[in-house]
Every structure is written in structure tokens, then in C-alpha cells.
Design brief:
Layout (H helix, E strand, L loop, with lengths): L2 E6 L3 H12 L2 E6 L11 E4 L12 E3 L10 E2 L8 E2 L2 H6 L5 E4 L4 H10 L3 E3 L4 H22 L8 E5 L3 H12 L3 E5 L3 H9 L3 E3 L4 H4 L5 E4 L8 H4 L7 E4 L9 H7 L3 E3 L3 H5 L1 H18 L9 E2 L1
Parallel strand pairs: 1-2, 1-4, 2-3, 4-7, 7-8, 9-10, 9-12, 10-11, 12-13, 13-14
Antiparallel strand pairs: 5-6, 8-15
Length: about 300
Amino acid sequence: MDKKAVIIGGDARQVEIALSLREAGVTVFLIGFDRWNREEAGIVKVSGNGDVPWSQIDAILLPVSGLKKGNTVEAQFSSMEIVLEEAWVQQTKESCLLMTGIQTEQLEKVTVEWKRRWIKLLERDDVAIYNSVPSAEGTLLMALRETNITIHRSNTVVLGLGRTGLTIAHTFSALGAYVKVGTAVPAEKARAQALGMETFDLGELNSIIESADICINTIPAPVLKEETIVQMPSHCLIIDVASYPGGTDFKYAKQRGIKALLAPGLPGAVAPKTAGQILANVITQLLAEQGTTKEDGNAVS
């Protein structure tokens, strides 16, 4: 594949993406990797200023955490602050794919100002489904580490039965946990019941939570509020895997002495190699389709 891509910032997942793209024949330029000491043919570390053929670039890839205030990006392999420069983007061709992980306020701003199209990878169904496996494994690891009981026969409450919640519920159920799934979405409730899972409406949460040993939230909205947490037994562990800032009143949980953990981005934390390969496969597919199909439906203009 005769393509060129620029990866700006990131973590171990971006390293896996770079290696996978190189294997697919893509020339990769890395910005914000001055602390990454490996030398790989087809992968070039650059500054972005005068050492990147921006007019020839087919894709710009930002970290999963997206674009932050001041157009900065997370860069675990850099000793300096890394900024996505508007001048870089404006030099690219119209067909250049701009990819990020999640939507952010800063992304909304530059999308309008720069008149460019962005693909938010974590909002794609295929990425979310693949990522649900390392998310579930990471949640299980946290539960094993942070409790003094077995998962088997534990009373586990899972809030939300989207792609991640479904895999988490399956994982804990397979280990013998008594799993109850709370959702306000009729389709999710039907899916859970079809799979033999016990469900309840979120309006019943305060009574359901009274016997919970583990509560796992996947809903990116305030669902575990003070009036719910007060009903929890003191030994209950909260694991909130929803995107930041989660759906838990962490301050009140701490006041009550209940351990509550915010754990977004589990795939990158517990399985960065797999998480990077998942993203790389999708990115490679998008580059292969570039110019032959319309941009992904999850892109924004």
C-alpha cells in the first residue's frame, strides 16, 4: 500500500499502529516520539516542521484521548508538549483522513474552523466491539485485585448493556457470578433477557444495589449518585469504565468508605498491543478504501 501517515503523540497503542502500518506498506512519520528509541525501516521520527511532506500525507492519526485544549495531545514518548499545528493540517490534500479516538470540545472547535473531516475511531461499532474484550478482561482483573471474595457466586451489577457492558456481563457470568443488568434501553433489556440474563430498570437501582458485591458502570452519565451509593453495602466495589468523568459520584463514595475506581481506556492500559492492533486493522482498511468510497459515516464535517 503506497500511503503516507503521520502519527502525532500517543502511547504504546500508537507504536503498535505504526508497526502494523509499516507492515502494510505505509510510510509512517512520528511526531512526539523522541523517547522511543527503536529504529524501524519505514518509520521516521520527525518534528513536523520542514521534515514532513504534508501535501502527500494520506492520514493524520491522533491519540485515543483526542485533541485537548490548545490543540495539544497526549504524548507518553515525548519530553516536550506536543501540539497539532493548524498549518500542518491546512497543507494536506482534501482526501487526507484525520483520525482521533474520541470527540472532545477542542475537536468540535477545530472541526468548524479548519473545515476538515475527522473520523472518531472509538465511536465505530467494529472498534467498540473488538475493544470490549480487553475492557472486560481489565475489569475482571481489577475486580480480582480489589476484592477479597471470588467472582464465583458474587452479586455483580452491570449498568448498561451496550457493546462493552454485554461482554463484561458475559465474562462475569461465565465465572459463576450472579449478574444483574440495569438498563433504560428497551433493546438492551431484550438482548439481555434473550441471553438468559436477569435485568432491571434503572429506576430500581437503589433497591438492587443493596446486595451488590461489585457494581460495574458502563453508562457515561451520572447513574451512581449519592442517593444510590448510600444504599450500597460498605464492602461493595465500584468499577466505572465509562468515558471520563464516568457516571459515579466519587467524592461521596469516598466519604462513605466505598472503593470506587474510574477506569476508562482499559484496552490501552491492560492490553496495549491488542488495542493497538485493533485500531491498526481499522486504519489500514480505511486507508485501503481511501479514494474509492465515501468517508466513514462516523466522520464529522
